[in-house]
């Protein structure tokens, strides 16, 4: 008798999920950068967060804010633009590092088509006397 009850209980438990409506995955929106925010990279320096992300264009921009939430409304400042045909239009996965008084920007770039050769590149500049991203720096300035 106990075995029958246990078997019946097991069958009922197995059938339970069948009567449930399918679960729908909740959509997710990046709270820090809603558009063109793939491959985010955040550096913290001098009391501010600095965000770079993939734009799939020929420019790299940085947002700066004292809080992570503040990055959502911080202005995007262009810090680099593709200047060669081999890396003009398809820039992604940028990284930003501050080492020994210099900002270093690493990125991958290619031509318009995603099937073209990809190149890794880097540029750097000295941190200006004022807070970074108040101006467009030039490479190795």
UniProtKB/TrEMBL annotation:
An individual GO BP term: carbohydrate metabolic process
GO MF assignments: hydrolase activity, hydrolyzing O-glycosyl compounds
Pfam family of the protein (one): Glyco_hydro_43
Biased composition (Low complexity): 118-132
Signal peptide: 1-25
Region (Disordered): 118-141
Gene3D superfamilies, per the entry: Glycosyl hydrolase domain, family 43
Keyword Acyltransferase: no
Keywords per UniProt: Glycosidase, Hydrolase, Signal
SUPFAM superfamilies attached to this UniProt entry: Arabinanase/levansucrase/invertase
Family (UniProt): Belongs to the glycosyl hydrolase 43 family.
PANTHER family the UniProt entry points to: GLYCOSYL HYDROLASE, HYDROLASE, FAMILY 43, PUTATIVE (AFU_ORTHOLOGUE AFUA_3G01660)-RELATED
Name of the protein described by the UniProt record: Uncharacterized protein
Species of the source: Streptomyces roseolilacinus
């Amino acid at each position: 008798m106990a075995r029958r009850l246990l078997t019946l209980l097991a069958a009922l438990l197995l059938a339970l999920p069948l009567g449930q409506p399918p679960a729908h995955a909740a959509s997710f929106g990046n709270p820090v950068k809603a558009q063109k925010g793939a491959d985010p990279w955040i550096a913290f320096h001098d009391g501010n967060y600095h965000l770079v992300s993939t734009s799939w264009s020929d420019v790299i921009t940085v947002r700066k804010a004292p809080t992570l939430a503040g990055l959502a409304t911080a202005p995007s400042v262009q810090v680099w633009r593709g200047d060669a045909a081999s890396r003009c239009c398809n820039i992604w996965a940028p990284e930003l590092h501050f080492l020994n008084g210099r900002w270093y920007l690493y990125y991958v770039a290619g031509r318009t088509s995603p099937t073209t050769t990809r190149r890794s590149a880097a540029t750097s500049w000295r941190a200006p006397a004022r807070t970074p991203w108040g101006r467009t720096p030039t490479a190795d300035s």
